[in-house]
Amino acid sequence: MFLKKTRFLLSTVIFDLKGEPILFQKPKYSQMASEIFYKTLKIEGKFEKNNIDDFLQQQLKEQELSKIKRKEFLIIGTFLSNVGKSSLLNALLGRNVAETSNYPGKTRSLDFYNLGQSKVIVDSPGYGFAKGNKKDIQHWGYLMQYYIKNSPFLKQSYVLIDSEHGFKDVDAMTLQLMQSLEKPFTIVFTKCDKISKIDELVQKSRENLEKHIYSSQVLHFTSVRNRTGLVELQQSIAFYCQ
Ligand SMILES: Nc1nc2c(ncn2[C@@H]2O[C@H](COP(=O)(O)OP(=O)(O)OP(=O)(O)O)[C@@H](O)[C@H]2O)c(=O)[nH]1
Ligand SMILES: [Mg+2]
């Protein structure tokens, strides 16, 4: 009942939940995307709970001096399935800057990649619970919550869901946390090359969105293997960079 209409735009589905959907797939945003991506890149560093605050404070000072508004885009997703955060970041940036692995737990800090003009993509460790080193995972959970709550620059979070595994309770919890903090997010399905039934995935996602009344209007379907949905994701970031 909340989903008034669904529009298929190549690899992006727009659910019109409330009001008008965001239309960022315009030539203007693809032009902006080509100006933002594949150009300059500065790795600002890897940060953890003990130094993230100092780093954000320093960025506030730099913003005051430069007068350029800093905008951060967080790539976030569960630990459970090794969802492909760093792989997606590499594919978006067009270079292998973040280390990837077949095993979960590779990215262990918040890693900041500045694309120039204070537009920053942030890679993150996986959230959720798993066998293995629970202390690490709990620590990453706190780090992420702290960052999401406290970064004055966080413009949009891209919440990655493995399309083979679908929505998990831990994802629903993260989305609810973001909703309660009024932090905007976009849902991105990864590894779409592994599934044949996109329609089923769309239907299940609709049901989940209806159940939880998430305010997100856009679902992205991506694969770094066959490059599905990467351009659309770049356009989305360009849209929020305005
Ligand atoms: N088939 C397929 N495999 C993918 C895709 N994206 C990532 N992978 C694989 O998924 C595995 C995990 O990728 P990562 O990018 O390291 O995942 P991550 O979410 O950053 O994992 P952590 O840093 O450990 O939390 C790697 O073996 C990738 O090759 C995709 O689009 N399709
Ligand atoms: Mg990673």
TrEMBL record:
The keyword Zinc-finger does not apply. Transmembrane segments: none annotated. Its cofactor is Mg(2+). It comes from the Eukaryota. Pfam families: MMR_HSR1 (PF01926). GO terms for molecular function: GTP binding; metal ion binding. GO terms for biological process: cell division. Keywords: Cell cycle, Cell division, GTP-binding, Magnesium, Metal-binding, Nucleotide-binding, Septation. Residues 71-242 form the EngB-type G domain. InterPro entries: G_ENGB_dom, GTP-bd, GTP-bd_ribosome_bio_YsxC, P-loop_NTPase. Gene3D superfamilies: P-loop containing nucleotide triphosphate hydrolases. Belongs to the TRAFAC class TrmE-Era-EngA-EngB-Septin-like GTPase superfamily. EngB GTPase family. This is EngB-type G domain-containing protein.
